[in-house]
Amino acid sequence: RKKSVQKIFVIGDFNLPGINWNEGTGRISLDNTFLNGFAECGLVQCIQKPTHIKGSILDILLCNSNDHLQNLKVETENAYCYSDHYPITFEINIKCKRRCFPKRVIYNYTKADWPNLVRELQSINWTALLDKQEPDIAWDKFTEILFKSIDKNVPKVTVKSEYKPPWFDSECFQKCREKEKLHKKFKLNRTTFNEIKFKTCRQEFKKLVKTKMCTNLDDPSRNILTKKFWSHVKSTSKSSRIPEVVFLNGKSSSDSKIKANMFNNYFQSQFSDKSNYDIDIDFSSDETFDVNFDVARVRDILSNIDINKAQGPDGINGIVLKRCADILAMPLSILFSLIYNTGMVPRQWKIANIVPVFKKGNKQNVENYRPISLTSIVGKVMERIMHEELFLRTQHLLDSRQHGFLNNKSCATNM
Q1: How does DSSP assign 102-115, residue by residue?
Q2: 77-88 pLDDT, tens per residue?
Q3: Alpha carbons 358 and 368: distance in angstroms, whole number
């Protein structure tokens, strides 16, 4: 359901010098078309003094309720900046709901003390702590010690969910603040010295932002469409990933919690019932399928983790696993062996953060989305080893014409 707009304010340089706003007449047909359009929308032009050095009213303020306008004033030439237009100031006396973005506390890995974190993790006797434990207990002990060390060596920072360009970091923010302070100082005291300082800082800020943008888009992997590319698209696009209002089965809502439940209910309805297979499994040759979760093998996978991948519900970031690969390879090797030998997977690995991804059609329709599951990165490391072992044992059964889901094969090789 669309919300009706009760109060409208439109301001800008309409460049209509032929209109006489006092009499409401225009010299050409275009002027009269604009006047009739404004009148049909119930808009009134509030500026009656010239806004240009040639004596024309080019900058106009239209509204349907001028009772809420206060202190409307056309300033003198160059009151705030050098221009052939006169600045316009006014106040709007109206109550409106300010959108509050929720704040989140996250780890600031750019300022982490990695050497000390590695030393703390290296001092733990992982074998005595994890060996011969149940997988859930071993996993809980591992994550407890890991996060204790992370809390000591990685500072936290509070951020808003309001989206900003990915290259606009703290350095850009500080420079922007400095530019705004110099601009305010220049407006209060319009000396040549203050003007030069402000313009110099403004140029430095623009140069810094341009450099940060170029650096952010550089990708060593040489991929055309990277995560940084899509971050750039998101920062320049005015559309949101999830619309403000979504609907399902004739019901619509703009409340975040209700919207999340709508997606959850729809995604859940797409799953089939749980299968109940009655298969007699022969475990007599079980020993031939032993998997060696070697420390070096785990370390190699951890060292090549893509740190840009989203973390799962366990909160373990890929950058921690990669920077501490030499130390964490051993406890994870023990943990993987426990899971494989007992056939029990930690409960936390079965939980996922679900992200709705738009497919096609009406973006407000929940049925036009598909779910993406963000699971534990540690669980994916073990999954990678299991995939390699399974492929080694079954590759002789695969037909040579199989091109899907195989390394170095694709639609192109099939053609």
Answers
A1: PEEEEE-GGG--HH
A2: 877 778 889 999
A3: 6
